[in-house]
Every structure is written in structure tokens, then in C-alpha cells.
Amino acid sequence: MRQFLVRGYRSTTMADLASGFGASKSTLYARYKSKAGLVLAAMERAVPVLLAPLSTVDTRLTRSPRAVLEDFGILLQANANDVSVRRCGAPSLNRVPKVRRSTLP
User: Mind listing the UniProt keywords for this protein, alphabetically (predicted)?
Assistant: First the structure.
């Protein structure tokens, strides 16, 4: 998954992936059928791992929506060095002024 996030889907080849896994292209194709199939399998495994920390945010209705969103932003920023967060979430932080001011250099 990291290669897709760093290089992009189009620039990542099955040969690159096979080399990274220490496998052959034919092994990857036999298991996943296509590059898209491999991405889908990787996402099915990665998304729950990426979302798990967000489940720790207190989302009770007694809290203001602003406080909940700020907590989500702080969690995202704490993981901003993770390439998947940089590609998916960090650009959105620029649209949250309080989080941007308190967490970005």
C-alpha cells in the first residue's frame, strides 16, 4: 500500500510490488488477479488500522461539534508523518484554522 501512496496508482507497477513483497508478478496475479484487486485487498486491511485511533475521540452528544472536530484534527496531525495520512487527511487540515495554527509549523 505504501508504494501506491508514495508513487501513485499509475506509477506503481506489479513488478515494483512483487519486488517489494519478495514475490513474483505471477504470484501476485494468481492471488489478486489485477493491480486493482491488490489495491482493494490492501485498502480492506489498511482502512480499519488507519481509522482505529479515531474511535478514541469522545463523540458524545454533550460535546460541541467543534470540540469533536478539533480532537479529530489533532489526532490526524499527530500522525501526519504517516504517508497515508499525508495523502488523505493532512491537506484538509489547512481548512481548519485552529488546528492549523496550533499544530503546523
Answer: DNA-binding, Transcription, Transcription regulation
Q: Flag residues of the chain having pLDDT under 70.
A: 1, 80-105
Full-model pTM: 0.54
CA distance 18 to 30: 12
Whether 68 contacts 58, CB under 8 Å = yes
* 33-45 core/surface letters (b: 16 or more CB in 10 A; e: else): eebeebbeebeee
* Burial label, 75 (beta-carbon count in 10 A; 0-12, 13-18, 19+): middle
Q: What is the CATH number of domain 1-46?
A: 1.10.10
By the 8 A CB rule, do 55 and 83 touch? no
